[in-house]
Amino acid sequence: MQVNTYVQNHIVIIGVEGQIDSYTAPTLEKHLQKILDEGNSRMVLDLEGVSYVSSAGLRAISLICRAARQIEDGGDIRLARPPQVVAQALRTSGFDQVFRIYDSIDEATARF
Q1: How wide is the angle at C-alpha 35 spanned by C-alphas 102 and 61, nearest 5°?
Q2: 107: three-class secondary structure by DSSP
Q3: How many domains does one find in the chain?
Q4: What percent of the chain has pLDDT over 90?
Q5: Residue 106 belongs to a domain with what CATH number?
Q6: Within a 13 Å sphere around the CA of 52, how many CA atoms are in the beta-carbon half?
Q7: Domain that holds residue 80
Q8: Does the pTM of the predicted model rise above 0.90?
Q9: Of all residues in the chain, what percent carry a pLDDT higher than 70?
């Protein structure tokens, strides 16, 4: 798994490539927690390059999302551009009801 981070309109964009599974989920969770600890509670997770996400990956993302939403400045993690297989995993697990999912990064950032 590779993670690339940049800032767009005061929102942290995290591009993920590869698989988010039980081996890589802890690394992603630590990366997201570090961003949150640095005072950045508004994030977009760009999933375009993700080929697979497991329940461990969804759990890691949801933990940080919950923490971000508790911050009073409107913190959240939005998901953008999930491939078909990832979108299916989100629907099957019911996480499409937990996360806000967008077709583009621009749409996700505009909704903050």
Answers
A1: 50
A2: helix
A3: 1
A4: 94
A5: 3.30.750.24
A6: 8
A7: 2-110
A8: yes
A9: 100
